[in-house]
Amino acid sequence: MTARGAVGGVYREALTYARRQFEAGVPQPDRVRALETLLRDVWPQVREWKYVCATCDDIGRRVVACPGDPTCGRRRPHAAHEFVVPCGCRFGDRFRRDPDRVVDAIPAPPRTARGRR
Ligand SMILES: [Zn+2]
Ligand SMILES: [Zn+2]
Known about the structure:
By secondary structure, the chain is α+β, with helices and mostly antiparallel strands. 41% of the residues lie in helices and 10% in strands.
C-alpha cells in the first residue's frame, strides 16, 4: 500500500469512527480524545526524525551571544547583541562556502548610546 493510500484509509476509518461515536451520543470532548488516541495508534509511521547536529538542529548556523566585548571581532566596547556563525558540522559548510549568506544573517549590531560603532 502506498503512503497516500494508507493515510487515506486511516482518514476514512477515523471519520467512520467519529460518526459512530457521535451517533452513540458520546460527548464531544470524549470523542475528540478518543479520536486522537485512535489516530496516534494507527497513523502510519514513516520514521522518527532525528537531528544529526544537536548544536544547530541541522540548520547549519548557531547563534552566539556577544556581551559587548571582542567576542564578535569588534575591538571597541559596544552594546550586547547576538550574531550567527556557521556551525562546525557539515550543515555549516554551505555557509562557510558562501560568506554572503552569513553576512545577510547577521542582524545589524545595535548602536552604542553615542550612536557610534
Ligand atoms: Zn550543526
Ligand atoms: Zn559584539
